[in-house]
Amino acid sequence: MASVVTVNDIINLLDEMAPPELAESWDNVGLMLGRRNKPVRKLLLALDMTQETVAQAVAKKADMLITHHPAIFHKLGNVTDADWQQELLLQLAENGVAVYSAHTNLDCVANGVNSVLAKRLRLQDADVLDTVSGLGRIGELAQPSKLHDFAVFVKKALQADYLTVGDAGRKVKRVAVCGGAGADLIGLALAQGADTLVTGDVKYHEAQQAVFSGLNIIDAGHQPTELPVLDDLADRLSLRFAEKHWDVAIQVARETLLLKHI
């Protein structure tokens, strides 16, 4: 007979895979909502706690929702239905769904957001870009590529709705990546010999800094650069559950891209 798996068991495993101490000091990671002794039979993985993912968690009768972005980021003075995020927390609590978030600790850990992104973009010999924080990765393409051709590949590989590209006039060979918002790594990317940086949420003046300093930059969007980690995490959790003989079903939520071209 299979042993009962609890929220606390899942937390211990996730903390082993993405240690909370790796998170940035400003971040909020770990158990956001729920009882640690609650039995878990169904897990749902998502990038964000949104109306879309909470509806799926409730419909699928998930016992636990694991998100990348913190379900609670700023300190709450109250929890009411006057705020859309608090309303979602109420729905989850009312349906007995525990919530756990792994954010910057999942970004920087081996096999985390940035390692998966580097692998998805077929970077060889990928190494850590920021050795202090552990954020970002940098590696080589098998063959040099024109920026346009590489951008088309990135769009397809990440299933992005659109890309924004800054052309510094360089061929693509040594590529730095950072899932989410990584424009603050422009200087490190240049210092480590990158000709191209793939990230999201790039502002105009950040793009200027990159391009005029000789770095191609591809803004593939915040969501598309982070979503690939979910399928990878689901696969790794499934293997660990099998090793432990845990009877817990895992699903990855469907998440519509928030920002689209029209």
Give an overview in words.
With 262 residues, this protein is of the alpha/beta class. It has two domains: 7-106 and 226-252, NIF3 (NGG1p interacting factor 3)-like (Udp-n-acetylmuramoylalanyl-d-glutamate--2,6- Diaminopimelate Ligase, Chain: A, domain 1, 3-Layer(aba) Sandwich), CATH 3.40.1390; 110-220, NIF3 (NGG1p interacting factor 3)-like (Udp-n-acetylmuramoylalanyl-d-glutamate--2,6- Diaminopimelate Ligase, Chain: A, domain 1). It has ten helices and eleven strands. It has helices at 7-17, 51-59, 84-94, 104-108, 113-120, 147-158, 186-191, 204-212, 222-226, 228-244, and strands at residues 30-33, 42-46, 64-67, 98-101, 124-128, 137-145, 164-166, 172-181, 196-200, 216-219, 249-252. The strands form two sheets. It has a six-stranded mixed sheet, with helices on both faces. A five-stranded mixed sheet has the order 1-4-3-2-11, with helices on both faces. The radius of gyration is 19 Å and the shape is globular. The protein starts with 6 loop residues before the first helix and ends in a 10-residue tail after the last strand. 42% of the residues are buried.
